[in-house]
Specification:
With 217 residues, the chain is an alpha/beta fold. Helices cover 33% and strands 18% of the residues. It has nine helices and nine strands. Strand 8 and strand 9 form a beta hairpin. Helix 4 (82-92) packs parallel to helix 6.
């Protein structure tokens, strides 16, 4: 299976997450997209971060009736950094082909991530344009290094990269996308009590099928 991985805090998950996931699925010919709900993002402050169970529940609501699985597998793997998570996930699921999905806002700060070049060597990266971030992303230190591996659109990828032997790496695919200005920050500003209205009972991880404790922080 070809799987797209979209990681993040999902604080909360919203319609733009769903929309870009379905867009990437179609553009890249993916079987599924997995949302990796992070227990904690090292680059984001803890203040204002809802408990993991509530963020997970918000992601499940947005993923309904779509080829999207919601997972908190980092909690089980004991990882905090994307590089460590992806390395363990590839070992755990050797029959899957993975591609890392991220917005251009993340590409702009990608060079701050732990072993970001290692991430690019583990699996291809697809960057989805976000309003207001393209200029910063293209001028970023990570883009300077990744530019040589870039394909401007999924259809320009050589088919040999998507055969049974797996995608070649490093590879950067830049996907143009109609602007979607919804953001978790705006949602939190408009509704600071969003998490309290979500039930965190009977949650199960979409990958491992293990229960997510209601008090998971």
């Amino acid at each position: 299976m070809k799987i797209g991985l979209l990681g993040g805090s999902f604080n909360p998950a919203h319609g733009a997450h769903r929309r870009i996931s379905l867009f990437a699925q179609q553009a890249l010919g993916l079987d599924e997209v997995w949302w990796l709900v992070s227990p904690g993002n090292p680059l984001k402050p803890e203040a204002g971060m809802a408990p993991l169970a509530r963020r997970f529940a918000s992601a499940q609501v947005q993923a309904r009736r779509a080829p999207i699985r919601v997972s908190a597998i980092e909690r089980e793997l004991g990882t905090r950094y994307t590089f460590d998570t992806l390395r363990k996930l590839v070992r755990r699921c050797p029959k899957h082909q993975f591609i890392w999905l991220m917005g251009s806002d993340n590409l702009a700060q990608f060079s701050r991530w732990k072993n970001w070049r290692g991430i690019a060597r583990i699996m291809p990266i697809a960057v989805i344009a976000r309003p207001g971030y393209d200029r910063t992303a293209f001028a970023s230190p990570a883009m300077v290094w990744l530019r040589r591996y870039r394909s401007s659109a999924a259809r320009n990828i050589d088919e040999s990269r998507m055969n049974g032997a797996g995608w070649s790496t490093p590879a950067l695919i830049y996907l143009r996308f109609d602007p979607d200005r919804r953001s978790a920050t705006a949602i939190r500003r408009a509704d600071s009590q969003w998490a309290s209205r979500l039930s965190a009972k009977a949650l199960r991880d979409g990958i491992t099928r293990h229960p997510i404790p209601e008090n998971a922080a």
